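Duplicate of earlier report; Mannose-6-phosphate isomerase input re-posted below.
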Amino acid sequence: MAIEHACVRVVQKPWGNTDLLPWSEVQHDGAAIGELWFQRANMNAPDPALLLKLLFTKEPLSIQVHPDDAFAQSIGLGNGKTEAWYILSAAPDAKVAVGLTRQLTAAELRCAIDDGSIAGLVQWRAVGKDDIVYVPAGTIHAIGPGLVLAEIQQRSDATFRLFDHGRVRELHVDNAVAAAFAGPAAESQPAAKRLTDARTLLVASPYFVLERIDFAPKSNWDIAAGQETWLLVLEGHAQVGPMNAFVGEAIFLEAETTSIQVGGDGLRALLAYAGADPVAGLLHNRDGQNVGFPVPGQPPIAPFQPAKAGPPAAKTEMRP
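Output:
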């Protein structure tokens, strides 16, 4: 059983930003911060299966790809990396790239990496606040400047760069060609789906589920986090068990049932947890209000029951 106020690891990046407000007041001494990693406070605990981050982009990231589990394991890594992004804020011209504009052979992809023309072949799309972007392993992708986003991912150190905007950093041509699906994104982007008045499903992948929760001011809830679960506050605040959680802070739970007491401004948060499907009994409204009751047209949520814990997994990742 575990409930912890997540600690934060600060990661400097050449494409990062110095303005992290309102998400963090971390001291950076003028250095560009690219990522904030949420980590377990108990350093002796096994590594979680998932990694939750905030990314701050002032310049574009490298064009890159992550392998699937099979390829990662073939080169001695524990697992691949599928990820999803939730856009927290976006400049008017902000965009991300997911997939290529056309199908390439392996030889064509190698040539495009070698001569830099891959930069003109990625499929860019505009994004705005509250958009969701799903990036399955093997998808060539990039993140542009002017964004703050939350990322949930398989915990993995497998990232292969194809193009780096003139930065003097290694490209990983052989592994990128072998790992990439060199064409348009294989899957359409997910559409948000209301599960209840309070729960919105954003992504359900083979490795994790990402939801957004919206709780009314001063409402009271129970959360039954059987498997590894991360709660990230986006707006408002709440007391989760014995711990206060404010904007930009995260709570880790596993094999734990506890209360959520929402503050006077309400609560909007992301919930990310290991598994492939939404957990029906994850949340229970204790007030008898109709927040949290099933939305018309959606199947009813099963009665509240504590879920069973899932197995832990390991490995950590550093985004180029």
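The CA atoms of residues 111 and 295 lie 51 Å apart.

Merging into the original ticket.
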